[in-house]
Design a protein that fits this description.
Elements: E1 3-5, E2 8-9, H1 16-30, E3 39-48, E4 54-65, E5 69-71, H2 73-83, H3 86-104, E6 110-113, H4 116-119, H5 124-135, E7 142-147, H6 148-152, H7 155-167, E8 171-177, H8 184-189, E9 194-197, H9 199-203, H10 209-224, E10 228-231, H11 237-245, E11 250-251
Parallel strand pairs: 4-6, 6-7, 7-8, 8-9, 9-10, 10-11
Antiparallel strand pairs: 1-2, 3-4, 3-11, 4-5
Helix pairs in contact: 1-2, 3-5
This protein binds ligand C2E and calcium ion (CA) (3 copies).
Residues 58, 113, 145, 175 line the site of one calcium ion.
Protein name: EAL domain-containing protein
Domain EAL: 23-273
Family: Belongs to the ammonia transporter channel (TC 1.A.11.2) family.
């Protein structure tokens, strides 16, 4: 085997036993996460470059584990996907995001991340519509964020589902753009409203010509297709300045706000975009 890092061999690292054990443990705990009320949502504002107004809030799931503390979605969402728990968790996320928007955020538009398993689950569109209806949340203020990989598996079915969602007034965003298959034909065929440029490109915007070239290309493409372009993971004024000069429509990132509980997430952005 090849050495792949300190004290690790590819596929045979000494920590794997415990890692597998931890995974199994989390998987078992995840089965009861909803009934135990251990999940919560944070919200992160998406800000208009032109006006500084908050366009919408992205809902991001958090797991407050009784023994292990806060666990991020990067860890538990993949486990939920593999264990089949993602549909129940995903429904909860939609319901809770609607409730919190209406209760705490004056009914502001929200966006929710959807995994492939959810999208392909039976009756997904009707299921979402029913949750929105029960919550009395207008579909026009509800956006789903999907990654390219979801569209590639079973393209025709995914296309039909997304078209049905559009017909019912919901909005669609293509998340993490530039990291996946990046087939440009998808962008034309699928009825997206928004493209989110992946944080990895924004991160290196000021240092790296190729990141800037890619971000530029995405923004030009977005304009040509009349899509709204969001830069995610904006952390510095320097990045903001570059994005602004290139005509990026919306920005999201720690520069404006980290994801926060609905009670304390900013209701407006001060100063950050002032000339
Ligand atoms: P994502 O949809 O790409 O979300 C953006 C991630 O970047 C979030 O991590 C957010 O906290 C982080 N972020 C935002 N601004 C900045 C910044 O300026 N700098 C840095 N360093 N990070 C920033 P988070 O909350 O850990 O979520 C990770 C991923 O988990 C999300 O990536 C999304 O794919 C997934 N996820 C989160 N909530 C849900 C959910 O309810 N359902 C599903 N299916 N997936 C979810
Ligand atoms: Ca997202
Ligand atoms: Ca993203
Ligand atoms: Ca991501």
């Amino acid at each position: 085997a090849k050495r792949s890092g300190r004290n690790t061999f590819a596929g045979f690292e000494p920590g794997m036993d415990t890692e597998l054990k931890l995974r199994r443990e989390l998987e078992a705990d995840l089965a009861k996460v909803l009934e135990r009320g251990e999940l919560s949502l944070c919200f992160q504002p998406r800000v208009s470059m032109k006006t500084g107004a908050i366009i919408c809030y992205e809902a991001l799931a958090r797991w407050n584990h009784p023994e292990r503390g806060l666990i991020g979605p990067g860890i538990f969402i993949p486990i939920a996907e593999q264990s089949g728990k993602i549909d129940a968790i995903g429904n909860w996320v939609i319901r809770e995001a609607c409730r919190l928007s209406l209760d705490k955020l004056s009914g502001a538009p929200i966006s929710v991340n959807i995994s492939g398993h959810q999208l392909r689950s039976r009756g997904f569109v009707d299921n979402v519509l029913q949750i929105l209806e029960e919550a009395k949340f207008p579909p026009e203020r509800f956006e789903v964020e999907l990654t390219e990989s979801i569209l590639v598996e079973d393209r025709d079915r995914a296309l039909a589902i997304l078209k049905a969602m559009k017909r019912r007034g919901m909005k669609l965003a293509l998340d993490d753009f530039g990291t996946g298959y990046s087939s440009l034909s998808y962008l034309r065929a699928f009825p997206f409203d928004t493209i989110k440029i992946d944080r990895s490109f924004i991160m290196n915007l000021a240092q790296d010509d190729s990141s800037l070239a890619i971000a530029d290309a995405v923004m030009n493409l977005g304009r040509a297709l009349h899509l709204s372009i969001v830069a995610e993971g904006v952390e510095t004024v320097e990045q903001l300045t570059i994005l602004s000069s290139r005509g990026c429509d919306e920005v999201q990132g720690y520069l404006f706000s980290k994801p926060m509980p609905a009670d304390i997430v900013p209701r407006e952005i001060e100063g950050a975009l002032a000339e």
